């Protein structure tokens, strides 16, 4: 949501050669954007339906995630890579330490 607002702000700011939109133009643009978003959401909600309002047998709605497990594939890879890097660094640190050998002193 924040990214969408930032894109709108940036597009307004830098479009039309730096022209700042009037209040009426901003309102018209906001109405247009909301309408497009509403249409997109309606298309997505009707995607699983067959003509006549029946649900398609192969399309199953996904339930909202109830656990705190991430479903973002890239984030999971990043966490895994970071964990491996940290463990490798610790292993390298302990492997590179000089071995202490006990020397027998003779009198």
Automatic annotation (TrEMBL):
The lineage of its organism: Eukaryota, Viridiplantae, Streptophyta, Embryophyta, Tracheophyta. Residues 42-59 have a biased composition (Basic and acidic residues). InterPro entries: At2g27730-like (IPR045284). This is F1F0-ATPase inhibitor protein. GO terms for cellular component: respiratory chain complex I. The keyword Transmembrane applies. Residues 42-74 are annotated as: Disordered. Keywords: Membrane, Transmembrane, Transmembrane helix. It comes from Zostera marina. The chain crosses the membrane at residues 77-95.
């Amino acid at each position: 949501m924040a990214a969408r607002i930032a894109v709108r702000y940036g597009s307004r700011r830098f479009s039309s050669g730096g022209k700042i939109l009037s209040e009426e133009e901003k309102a018209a643009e906001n109405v247009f954007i909301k309408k497009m978003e509403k249409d997109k959401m309606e298309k997505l909600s009707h995607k699983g339906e067959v003509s006549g309002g029946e649900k398609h047998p192969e399309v199953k709605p996904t339930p909202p995630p109830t656990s705190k497990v991430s479903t973002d594939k890239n984030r999971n890879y990043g966490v895994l890579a970071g964990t491996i890097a940290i463990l490798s660094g610790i292993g390298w640190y302990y492997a590179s330490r000089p071995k202490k050998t006990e020397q027998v002193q003779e009198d």
